[in-house]
Write a structure and sequence with these properties.
Blueprint (H helix, E strand, L loop, with lengths): L2 E3 L9 H7 L8 E3 L6 H4 L8 H12 L6 H11 L5 E4 L4 E5 L9 H16 L5 E6 L4 H9 L5 E7 L4 E2 L13 E6 L3 H13 L1 H7 L1 E3 L5 H18 L6 E7 L4 H11 L6 E6 L5 H5 L25 H10 L1 H7 E5 L2 H15 L5 H16 L6 E7 L7 H8 L7 H4 L4 E2 L3 E3 L3 H9 L3
Parallel strand pairs: 4-13, 5-6, 5-9, 6-8, 8-15, 10-11, 10-13, 11-12
Antiparallel strand pairs: 1-2, 3-4, 7-14
Helix pairs in contact: 3-4, 3-9, 4-5, 5-6, 5-9, 9-10, 12-13, 14-15, 14-16
The structure holds pyridoxal-5'-phosphate (PLP).
Length: about 425
């Protein structure tokens, strides 16, 4: 599979180049050029297959010539010491738990695969510097995934304020390959510095700079794998149609689902579950996208006003607007409905779901009622966050005290960055160069 920019169809690059450069020279974002139909590889898979086994089959099928089955198996084994978990609630709903990774969010899947596949692609041939904005727990996920990997140095870029959960033994001055840098500025300043550094072609080529943000196609691809995994687990017991409900903010997860469909996964639709930040729903219905001011909600990872994957989404819609309008169902859920869904799921199924997952659950119920799906459509709700990460909200909704697992407690420990710099490119590049 080759990759091209959303802005140009005239040329394409290999997966390796797309992962190691990650921003096309002509602007836009990398997307798969010709999407391959690989259904022959997973339609008849045994339902007892493990996640790494599935990845070792599916990844080489997609990346023919770049990742052979042996390499893919090595990548999958070293990336995934955690698995997705499908739980059937009843005839209408299942939950796909994606929060078993080191930081308790689904983003661990993309980051873990990216780090392992980079090491494999770089085997004995050079060094890459991976820049990542490290809001929230992304820095911990990066450290877990990249720590100790050959050929890579991961630079974590933080805005002003404390940082948490990192292991100083993994830092560059202590012989590791992780470099946390704090920028005296905002999260937007951090993003801007990453883009500016990648677009400073001379510097970027000298130090082989790429990014591990959601824009990297090496993070997007592994997110398609858990959709296929869920399909393989459930295909034999499907009463009728299959739909996925996806809690969405930057819309990376939903785009990955659409790619899984393009790869040949038989699925009838996707619910784009949004909280009060729902302007993107207009675009999904075929209207112009007009961003609105940000609203704070109880599902903060979905408080996004302009989705980072907007261009990838637009590129899907350009190709087949009518298909997309029939495939993707936008639904917006407010905080009250979210808390209500947490309580209902607890009472009815005795399962705790986090607020992001609850938005997707409520959106699935709402969409099923609107379209009178009852009994004919099975909806898999993606559980994107560990319930213990939002213990306070869950306590309020269910009255339950939530025990926080050890690994998630460690995320709350304060640490010091290696450098604190002003929000300017020269300062940033100077600090980054010290990584080598
Ligand atoms: C990031 C995140 C989301 C939103 O995912 P996108 O791919 O940005 O749409 C949803 N839930 C949780 C818990 C998250 O961390």
């Amino acid at each position: 599979m080759r990759f091209r920019s959303t802005k140009s169809k005239s040329y394409s690059v290999s997966f390796k180049d797309a992962v190691l450069r990650c921003l096309p020279a002509e602007g836009g974002l990398y997307v798969p050029d010709q999407v391959m139909d690989i259904r022959q590889f997973f339609l008849y898979m045994d339902k007892d297959i493990t996640f790494p086994e599935l990845v070792s089959v599916v990844a080489p099928a997609l990346l023919q010539g770049e990742l052979n089955p042996f390499s893919a198996s090595r990548v999958a084994e070293s990336a995934f010491d955690f698995e997705p978990e499908l739980i059937r609630l009843d005839k209408d709903f299942s939950i796909l738990n994606l929060y078993n990774g080191p930081t308790g969010v689904f983003k661990d899947f993309g980051i873990a695969f990216l780090a392992a596949v980079m090491e494999e692609l770089l085997k004995n041939s050079g060094q890459t510097m991976v820049l990542s904005a490290a809001r929230g727990d992304t820095g911990v996920s990066m450290t877990h995934a990249f720590g100790g990997r050959k050929g890579t140095c991961a630079v974590l870029v933080y805005p002003s304020g404390p940082i948490f959960g990192l292991d100083p033994a993994a830092f560059v001055p202590n012989g590791g390959n992780i470099l946390p840098i704090q920028v005296r500025g905002t999260a937007d300043d951090c993003q801007r510095l990453i883009y500016e550094t990648i677009n400073d072609r001379k510097f970027a080529e000298r130090y082989h700079v790429t990014s591990a943000n959601a824009i990297n196609p090496g993070r997007l691809l592994p997110q398609t794998f858990y959709y296929l995994y869920a399909f393989v687990k459930i295909k034999k017991s499907l009463p009728g149609d299959l739909v996925f409900s996806v809690p969405s903010g930057n819309f990376g997860n939903l785009i990955a689902g659409l790619y899984a469909w393009k790869f040949g996964m038989p699925v009838n639709g996707f619910i784009a579950a949004m909280n009060a930040n729902n302007a993107f729903g207009d675009f999904i219905r075929g209207k112009a996208f007009t961003p609105r001011p940000l609203v704070s909600t109880c599902s903060p990872a979905m408080d996004v006003s302009v989705p980072a994957n907007y261009e990838r989404f637009a590129s899907f819609y350009e190709e087949a607007p009518a298909v997309m309008r029939n495939m993707v169902y936008p639904a917006s859920i407010n905080d009250e409905q979210t808390l209500d869904a947490i309580e209902r799921v607890w009472k009815k199924y005795h399962i705790l779901i986090d607020p992001h997952t609850a938005v997707a659950f409520a959106a699935a119920e709402k969409t099923a009622a609107e379209h009178k799906w009852g009994g004919n459509v099975h909806t898999i709700i993606l559980a994107t966050g560990h319930p213990a990460k939002e213990a306070g909200t869950l306590q309020r909704a269910t009255g339950q005290d939530i025990a926080i697992p050890e690994k998630l407690l460690a995320l709350q420990k304060k640490v010091d960055p290696i450098a604190i710099i002003p929000p300017q490119l020269v300062s940033f590049e100077g600090a980054v160069a010290s990584c080598f």
